[in-house]
TrEMBL record:
Pfam families hit by this protein: M20_dimer, Peptidase_M20
Family statement: Belongs to the peptidase M20 family.
Residue runs in coiled coils: none
A GO cellular-component term linked to this record: endoplasmic reticulum
Protein name: Peptidase M20 dimerisation domain-containing protein
Domain Peptidase M20 dimerisation: 228-321
Any one GO molecular-function label of the UniProt entry: IAA-Ala conjugate hydrolase activity
GO annotation terms (biological process): auxin metabolic process
Source species of the chain: Gossypium stocksii
Record key words, sorted: Hydrolase, Manganese, Metal-binding, Signal
Classification via PANTHER family: IAA-AMINO ACID HYDROLASE ILR1-LIKE 4, PEPTIDASE M20 FAMILY MEMBER
CDD domains with a match to the protein in the record: M20_IAA_Hyd
Cofactor binding remark: The Mn(2+) ion enhances activity.
Secretion signal span: 1-27
Length: 453
């Protein structure tokens, strides 16, 4: 009897609390339900991605793309294959976007919109890996894993299509051209097809991290970068009578040395920067001073302000040092054939980092989610992050029982295809849980509206 009275009073108290503040009760119960569901989704999606028929499907797509590598803004066959697979999945898309790009849509077709991105282009490298699906296009190779990236986003699309009931918004599938120096991400943004996107996720395979692990960090992850070409002009002549010439090789040599001082003597030691001269072309004979010398290289930093300062000083040093040696110089931060864009730093959103840690930890285990140091490489994914919050991470593919994999941009580069289901499931999980969390933030408002009715 006493227990019954206590229970009755408890029920009365809960009812009174709900009448006076229904939002609190609704929000609390929704939050618990949502939290449990969010935790289960990553493992469920990974189990689905590891099904033999799904893995075989992703592997087939990846190998077909690998056999037919195409350079930036030339990915017509790659784009055709992607559209064919999207058609089979019943996923609508926009095409063409920025020459060869595709933007697909999975979900309600309504806000919020969250994007996952794959780059499609290959590199001008002759493949030396001798295997059944070796590149059929001489001098071109998928040596950076973009074939795997495309397969993973298509794999994520398949997962999402099979779990439409989980989607409380729209996942935008971004297949972009020309990541390798062509600034495809910027052109996708300029096309206006991503104007409504709230957040974007991207990944890159990495050869020297174990399979089933991921790594990233909040804030600056990859450096911003720029490229430069300079022509130093003098007056050619016979090497035996240099006084009758104006030697551009001597001037260019002084320029190369002086450029190194921009980092060692002008940059803050705590602000990591790089200036590298990687091209030096001039002369063709042992006894002839040439009329001109061409040099070129790259400059990198983790802040846009530092990049702008480096760009300014590189031009000043080249022209100033050329003048000291009686030469003239022209400096270009572009190429006449295709734009060499000023790539901003890749800066991960801090809130999305927390989201990534939760989702990846639920899927792989917290011990498989690693913190990484910033890297001086650059990524045009950074253009998306300038437009809206974005998050970029690396996914390992080294099997400890297999020979060590070669690094990217290498003619011996290979993909451990066991990584495909991990990438697909992470893409799908990050996007789905992002939408669910966005929806849960709106639930208290819905509770208030219901209370007013």
């Amino acid at each position: 009897m006493k227990t019954s009275m206590i229970f009755s009073k408890l029920v009365s108290f809960v009812l009174i609390l709900q009448l006076h503040n229904p939002t609190v009760v609704l929000s609390s119960s929704s939050s618990l339900s949502s939290s449990n569901g969010l935790t289960e989704i990553p493992k469920k999606f990974l189990d689905f991605a590891k099904r033999k028929e799904v893995v075989d499907w992703m592997v087939r797509i990846r190998r077909k793309i690998h056999e037919n590598p195409e350079l930036g803004y030339e990915e017509f066959e790659t784009s055709k294959l992607i559209r064919l697979e999207l058609d089979k999945l019943g996923i609508p898309y926009k095409y063409p976007v920025s020459v060869t790009g595709i933007v697909g849509f999975v979900g309600t077709g309504e806000p919020p919109f969250v994007a996952i991105r794959a780059d499609m282009d290959a590199l001008p490298i002759q493949e030396t890996v001798d295997w059944e699906h070796k590149s059929k296009n001489p001098g071109k190779m998928h040596a950076c894993g973009h074939d795997a990236h495309v397969s993973m986003v298509l794999g994520a699309a398949k997962i999402l299509k099979q779990h439409l009931q989980e989607l409380k918004g729209t996942v935008v599938l971004v297949f972009q051209p020309a990541e390798e120096g062509g600034g495809g991400a910027k052109k996708m943004l300029d096309a206006g097809v991503l104007d409504n996107v709230d957040a974007i996720f991207g990944l890159h395979v990495v050869h020297n991290a174990p399979i089933g692990t991921v790594a990233s960090k909040p804030g600056p992850l990859l450096a911003g970068s720029g490229l430069f070409d300079a022509v130093i002009s003098g007056k050619g002549g016979h090497a035996a009578i240099p006084q009758h010439s104006i030697d551009p090789i001597l001037a260019a040599s002084n320029i190369v040395v002086s450029l190194q001082h921009l980092v060692s003597r002008e940059a803050d030691p705590l602000d990591s920067q790089v200036v590298t001269v990687a091209k030096f072309q001039g002369g063709g004979a042992f006894n002839v001073i040439p009329d001109s010398v061409t040099i070129g290289g790259t400059f990198r930093a983790f802040s846009k302000a530092s990049l702008i300062q480096l760009k300014k000083r590189i031009e000043e040093v080249i022209k100033g040092q050329a003048a000291v040696q009686r030469c003239s110089a022209t400096v270009d931060f572009y190429n006449t054939k295709k734009p060499m864009l000023f790539f901003p730093p890749t800066v991960n959103d801090k809130d999305l980092h927390e989201h990534f840690l939760k989702v990846a930890g639920d899927m792989l285990g917290n011990d498989k989610v690693k913190d990484m140091k910033p890297v001086m490489g650059s990524e045009d994914f950074a253009f998306y992050q300038e437009a809206f919050p974005g998050y970029f991470f690396f996914i390992g593919m080294q099997d400890e029982n297999s020979p060590k994999l070669s690094s990217v941009h290498n003619p011996n580069f290979t993909i451990n295809e066991d990584v495909l289901p991990y990438g697909a499931a992470l893409h799908a999980s990050l996007a789905t849980t992002y939408l669910l969390e966005a929806e849960s933030k709106l639930r208290p408002t819905e509770g208030n509206l219901h209370d007013e009715l």
